């Protein structure tokens, strides 16, 4: 193995080159990888083994796996894998461009009380163009806040709701102008579950300290954010828009250009990510594991 920085300009992220199945049988290597994950938040595995079995086995080095909350997106043969398809799925107009497979800035499963700790992504089918994945470190984003904003956000909590119709989940994405052109084939069944109370609203802290290091995290997912608990609508909306504009600043983003054989691991408790999308008419398929865990700070709103 060889470990190198992803980008010298960024404080997060490492690339591990040449990892194979035999390596993750060594507990010392596994512990080194776990430490690297917590310290750097994002690991790109390149020029090593890359297949569904290895993806699942490598994911288990970082914790138990869980089945994704949206059952319609689970792989039909391997429930450890969540499947996202671009091309034939939802189609969006984003800042004037038609894009399939587009998912704006978010934390995975933040609309549940116990968000998963991380995930590993693998591209099962690479499109001819596009398909990059963006990452932002929420520790670095917190450090870049002004002193006044740091004081203002301390102790606040954000309400998250999975809303029917897709677009209502994109309220706090001030850098993107998004229109739904074609819904996802599963959207009707997901909407029915939402409307029947299958995804109740939850609350997460706006700031928390990373377990083990104490570093503070600006814990905001612009996608799925609904309001700040206890603030009136105008103040809540204004603060969420300000923070969302800050946290999605591309100056602090890493944009991953996929190469054949790449696997990407991220810490979902501190990294935002987005799927940049692909041109209309192309096809992309990605498989993702969900590494279980609970930082024990989320709760149901009613509770």
TrEMBL record:
EC number(s) on record? Answer: 1.14.11.-
Q: What class of enzyme is it?
A: oxidoreductase
In its UniProt record, a GO molecular function of this protein is:
dioxygenase activity
Would the keyword Metal-binding be found if you checked this record's keyword annotation?
yes
Sorted alphabetically, the keyword list is:
Dioxygenase, Iron, Metal-binding, Oxidoreductase
Per the UniProt record, one Pfam family is: TauD
Which InterPro entries has this protein been placed in? Answer: AtsK-like (IPR051323), TauD-like_sf (IPR042098), TauD/TfdA-like (IPR003819)
Q: Which residues form the TauD/TfdA-like domain?
A: 3-289
What range does the record give for the signal peptide?
none
Family membership: Belongs to the TfdA dioxygenase family.
Name of the featured protein? TauD/TfdA family dioxygenase
Organism equals Sphingomonas oligophenolica
């Amino acid at each position: 193995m060889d470990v190198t920085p992803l980008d010298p300009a960024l404080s997060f992220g490492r690339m591990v080159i040449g990892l194979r199945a035999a390596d993750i049988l060594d507990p010392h290597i596994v512990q080194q990888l776990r430490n690297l994950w917590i310290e750097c938040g994002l690991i790109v595995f390149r020029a090593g083994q890359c297949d569904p079995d290895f993806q699942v086995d490598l994911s288990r080095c970082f914790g138990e796996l869980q089945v994704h909350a949206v059952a319609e997106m689970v792989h039909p043969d391997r429930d450890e894998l969540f499947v996202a398809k671009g091309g034939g799925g939802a189609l969006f107009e984003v800042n004037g461009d038609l894009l399939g497979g587009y998912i704006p800035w978010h934390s995975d499963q933040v609309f549940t009380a116990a968000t998963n700790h991380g995930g590993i992504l693998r591209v099962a089918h690479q499109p001819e163009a596009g398909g990059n994945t963006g990452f932002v470190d929420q520790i670095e984003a917190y450090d870049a806040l002004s002193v006044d904003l740091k004081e203002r956000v301390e102790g606040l909590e954000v309400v998250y709701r999975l809303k029917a119709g897709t677009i209502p989940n994109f309220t706090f994405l001030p850098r993107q102008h998004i229109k739904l052109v074609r819904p996802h084939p599963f959207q009707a069944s997901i909407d029915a579950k939402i409307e029947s109370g299958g995804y109740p609203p939850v609350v997460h802290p706006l700031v928390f300290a990373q377990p083990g290091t104490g570093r503070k995290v600006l814990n905001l997912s612009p996608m799925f954010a609904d309001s700040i608990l206890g603030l009136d609508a105008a103040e809540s909306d204004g603060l969420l828009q300000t923070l969302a504009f800050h946290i999605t600043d591309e100056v602090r983003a890493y944009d991953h250009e996929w190469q054949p054989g790449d696997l990407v691991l991220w810490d979902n408790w501190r990294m935002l990510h987005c799927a940049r999308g692909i041109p209309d008419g192309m096809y992309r398929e990605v498989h993702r594991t969900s590494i279980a865990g609970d930082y024990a700070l989320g709760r149901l709103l009613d509770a």
